[in-house]
Amino acid sequence: MAFIADVILGVKPSATMVATQKARDLKAQGRDIISLSVGEPDFDTPDHIKEAGIAAIRRGETKYPPVLGIPALREAIAAKFKRENGISYKASDTIVGTGAKQILFNAFMATMNPGDEVIIPAPYWVSYPDMVQLCGGKPVIVGTTLKGGFKLQAEDLERAITPKTKWLVLNSPSNPSGAAYTAAELKSLTDVLVKHPHVWLLTDDMYEHLVYGDFVFTTPLQVEPSLYDRTLTLNGVSKAYAMTGWRIGYAAGPAVLIKAMDMLQGQQTSGATTIAQFAAVEALNGSQDHLPVFRKAFQERRDLVVSMLNQAKYLQCPMPEGAFYVYPSCADAIGKTTQDGKVIHTDEDFISGLLEQEGVAVVHGSAFGQGPNFRISYATSTKVLEDACSRIQRFTASLV
Ligand code: PLP
After folding, report:
1. Distance 101 CA to ligand 1 centre (A)
2. Which of 26, 113, 195, 208 has the maximum number of C-beta atoms within 10 A of its C-beta?
């Protein structure tokens, strides 16, 4: 009898973590490695947010917080949804978690019965299907196309819904493709959901502030308010406030769900770190002056990377609307051979060859449920990105 539970043995380690570790190991061996695999901003947390955390420590705000979050943060979350998204939630509809990751996990844990289905459009953030599986549910992956901008199409959603469907997970802007839905595109999907009242919507708006050019971010409840009583709107401070290590995520949704998640979290981690919650209050209520600076830097990097990748032989890189990822196709490199004689059969072969030959670490698309592609995180300096993209160009040019 195995000591470790079957459910754990069935879960894959996060591909992004594996790629990041492999790059670290090679670096430690003295190789010249550029890692474009991590999903966090290279910026530091803005000073006024750090100061709010320090002030909380000095005031002695170091005790257990309420399970659902400190009142000041839950008020700030409700105010943020009203101010930035025009959607109405009361503070009592909100929940704070140890990162958005915990909220996602608890939302699935609180709702999955064996065999319940969760529709996840591919390419997807690596954690969704594994979390669903860990909670006893069944991920139902629905593919998208490069031509369709990696966005879920209404007819594909309609086809995927069964009597067992519990959730649709939408993530816009997307990790890993950077694709973001316009209001009209969202409406075509919410129109389908309106016809299927047993399906709930989990909208992961984590990258909302990282959209470029004149793209306008929209959250589904703005286009279809009738879905309030079956939508969980998820967000967090990790990406827009460069606070990945503070571990604060939040959501708002119907009382029946928040109550179940409260119960679950109460038996688990209890409330998220008090100090980090006070810092998050400042993030949401305080100055947002860093945001245009982040956006400008990310947009310049996106434009540089897309342009350089489209000049690389065999690669096709669409221009994403947001986040800090690009998701080029390497389909035309399949069947080619690397300098040391290895045939590229898959996107995983492509990224292994790239790492071995040129020392650039990226993540293969099949890890995100859709290939042959790979994901580049451009949350690093222009100089490093230029070097990395030149190496990618050299790698593809060397394929025969
Ligand atoms: N959702 C998406 C799409 C993400 O990319 C991430 C982090 O990579 C998260 C949620 C989780 O964020 P956190 O747990 O840092 O709040």
Report:
1. 6
2. 208
